[in-house]
Amino acid sequence: MMQKIILFLAVSIMAAAQVSFFPNLAPQKSAPDVLLMLVLFWTIRRGFENIWPRIVLAGLVLDALTFGRFGWNVLIFTVASFAVDSLSKRFLSFQKPLAIAVTAGFVVFATLVNWIFSAVSVLASAHLSGLGHTLSFADVFYGLFLKIPYNLMIFFILQWFSSKFGWYFRPASSKLGLEGQGGRF
Amino acid sequence: MMLKCQHDKMSSKYFTSKLIKLLLMAAVCGLLIFLNPKQLFDPIRGFLLGITRPFQKTFYILSEKTRDTFGFLASIGELKEDNERLLRENTDLAARLADLESQRSENAVLREQLDLAPRNKYDLEGAFVIGQDPSGAGLWIAISKGESDGIRAGMPVIVSDGVLVGKVEEAHRTSAKVSLITDPDSSVNVEDIGTGAPGIVKGAYGLGLIMDMVEQSDVLNEGDTISTSGLGGMFPKGFLIGQVGQIVNTPDKLFQQAVVKPAANYSKLDVVFAVKSSLDAD
Q1: Are A67 and A23 in contact (CB under 8 A)?
Q2: ipTM score assigned to the predicted complex
Q3: Contact criterion met (CB below 8 Å) for B187 and B201
Q4: Measured between alpha carbons, how far is A100 from A104 in angstroms, rounded to an integer?
Q5: CB of A106 within 8 A of CB of A40?
């Protein structure tokens, strides 16, 4: 029970950081997707099937704090987590340097999945409200390339935090061997 | 061979169960997004907003301090140069101050004539900004006051000098969502103060504001000031919006469109005021 409360609080605090801290610091449209990185971290460690209740929790908290429609972020997190989980099966036994590169690849992939959802929603909304002509190709891509390094930074901070203060994630069985077992990353 | 077969079967079974979970979750999410049962979820949203409000407020203040600190550090190299420039400017400004004093009284008269909204005309509720649209499109902000402070949906929101920021879209117990006028879904009835040309101001997906629906027969000039016209009753007359920038014709040539340079920086708001009521009406 205590662990669930801590998990809920951790997710809430990270969602608050995503909505209230980073947008003020990061250049326009490049604020990192903190909760998406948390979901990705869980996915790599435990697999989609074992974390789907957490995906729902993280998605709902973010939907609440962003005043969006409930289900939107759950859907994005679900698709990203499922895709990364399916891809990660191919990379079970990579050595450390390659595992880092693969993990970074997953971060880029998840960022792109999230961005595609957002871009489609913005474009659809712009065309429906007759303002499609005000959006250029560059506007849609604006911020994406800065978002990727920010997300990488958040992901590796999460990983460092987990290895340093692994009070919560310790029982996990890593698919990529991210816990330093057997010389793996 | 048999082992490989078994492995394939197991992974296909695993994949199927995972796929079913994905499809189920996607279907439920799709249904929720489509139906958007606000009444069902509003208490949950209110609860979550209540829990995260202190964190949001702390994070927002922290981010402002961090931004200021980094801004200061980045500018240290330019300080000496700036100092010399400022000394020169100071001398110039002292000379211009005398001029401005006389212009100030003139401005007060002009402001009255233009009917810009003074702060003491309204019952205002001040609130801290505690969150903003993380997509960076500048669609909304979250404020630290809600229903318990008398904030209601539909109230206009301004910054201290009477610049319109947006309106309260959702009010929860301890916080509220303010949709900014930079949101393309918002529309504000405005007029050009100089020429009286009416139009509608809309957001342009984080790219600023556009004044639309200005008839070809009306006159718009670059640099003119735009304020709310009070038409439609959603926003009182006289809240400042910004200045007219580049003017173009709509593709069908029926109307004129103008880029509006906003009078407020919507991505750097810290304190805003919800307009609860007009004091004239009391």
Answers
A1: no
A2: 0.81
A3: yes
A4: 6
A5: yes
Q: How far is CA B251 from the centre of its chain?
A: 28
From B199, B194, B217, B181, select the one nearest B258 (Cα to Cα).
B199
A156 touches chain B (CB under 8 A): no
pLDDT tens column, B197-256: 999 998 876 567 889 888 888 888 888 889 999 888 888 888 889 989 888 877 677 888
Please state the pTM of the whole predicted model: 0.76
Note the pLDDT tens digit of each residue in A19-57: 999 988 887 778 899 999 999 999 988 888 889 899 999
Q: Whole-number mean pLDDT of chain A?
A: 81
- What is the token pair recorded at A170? 């310790």
Q: How many CB atoms lie within 10 A of CB B183?
A: 24
Report B:32-61 residues touching A (Cβ under 8 A).
Answer: 32-33, 36-37, 41, 44-45, 48-49, 51-52, 55-57, 59-60
CA–CA distance, A103 with B220 (Å, rounded to integer): 55
Given a contact cutoff of 8 angstroms between Cβ atoms, the answer to whether B165 and B272 are in contact is yes
Q: Please count the other Cβ atoms lying within 10 Å of the Cβ belonging to residue A123.
A: 14
* C-alpha to C-alpha distance for A65 and B134, rounded to whole angstroms: 10
**Which is it for the CA torsion A153, A67, B260, B212, positive or negative?**
positive
Instruction: Choose the closest CB to B48 out of A65, A78, A82.
Output: A65
Amino acid found at A82: F
SS3 B137: coil
d(CA B200, CA B211): 5
Q: Which residue has the tokens 């604020």?
A: A31
Which tokens in the block code for residue B36? 């958007």
Residue A50 at interface with chain B, using a CB cutoff of 8 Å: no
Q: How far is Cα of residue B128 from the mean position of the Cα atoms in its chain?
A: 13
Helix (H) or strand (E) holding A69: none
DSSP H/E element including B200: strand B198-203
Contacting residues of A for B183, CB less than 8 Å apart:
none
What's the length of chain A?
A: 185
Are residues B184 and A131, on separate chains, in Cβ contact within 8 Å? Answer: yes
- The terminus-to-terminus CA distance of chain A in angstroms comes to 31
